[in-house]
Amino acid sequence: MLVYAEMYGAQYGLGFYVKRYSTLGIYENVWGGFLFMVFILIIVMTIFEKIKNHILRWAM
To answer: What CA–CA distance (Å, rounded) separates 22 from 15?
Structure first.
């Protein structure tokens, strides 16, 4: 959600990067930005899942 908002209001950041290269028609960079977002999301979700499993060990 933040990246989406950043596409329209910011002057820097990943959302701005994707929006800028989309406007310029450089779609390799657009896909690179999206893949980077997916990669970061997978890492963050994995970390939170490990923290959850550690804290809620009794619920397993």
So the answer is: 10
Give just the sign of the alpha carbon dihedral 24, 26, 31, 32: negative
Does pTM top 0.90 for this prediction?
A: no
DSSP states along the chain: -HHHHHHHH-SSSHHHHHHHHHHHT-HHHHHHHHHHHHHHHHHHHHHHHHHHHHHTGGG-
Report residue 21 as tokens.
């290269």
Distance CA 14, CA 29 (A): 11
Overall residue count recorded for the chain in this entry: 60
The per-residue pLDDT string of the chain (60 residues; one tens digit each, 9 = 90 and over) reads 666 677 777 788 888 888 899 999 999 999 999 999 999 999 999 999 999 999 988 766
